[in-house]
Design a protein that fits this description.
The chain is mainly β and 73 residues long. It has no helices and nine strands.
Length: 73
């Protein structure tokens, strides 16, 4: 990963300027509890389901992986 210029795309959100740790081998992200809803509407909570996650670094774009979001029990 880049030092501090990584972009993480998770479903409908994009996190920019994500810094790496462990000498560029680890990214730690905080996923917001709400996602943009578009059209000027207030952000909405995540809906349970699977979402693609891709990382863009100065060297290129990763292959997407899929993560699962579940409602708290």
């Amino acid at each position: 990963f880049g030092v501090d210029d990584n972009t993480v795309m998770l479903g409908p959100i994009t996190l920019t300027s994500v810094k790496s740790a462990e000498q560029g081998t680890l990214l730690i992200i905080r996923v917001p509890d709400r996602v943009p809803s578009g059209g000027g509407a207030a952000p909405m909570p995540w809906t349970s389901g699977t979402y693609p996650l891709t990382v863009v670094t100065p060297r290129g774009t990763s292959a997407p992986i899929t993560i699962t979001v579940k409602e708290p029990s």
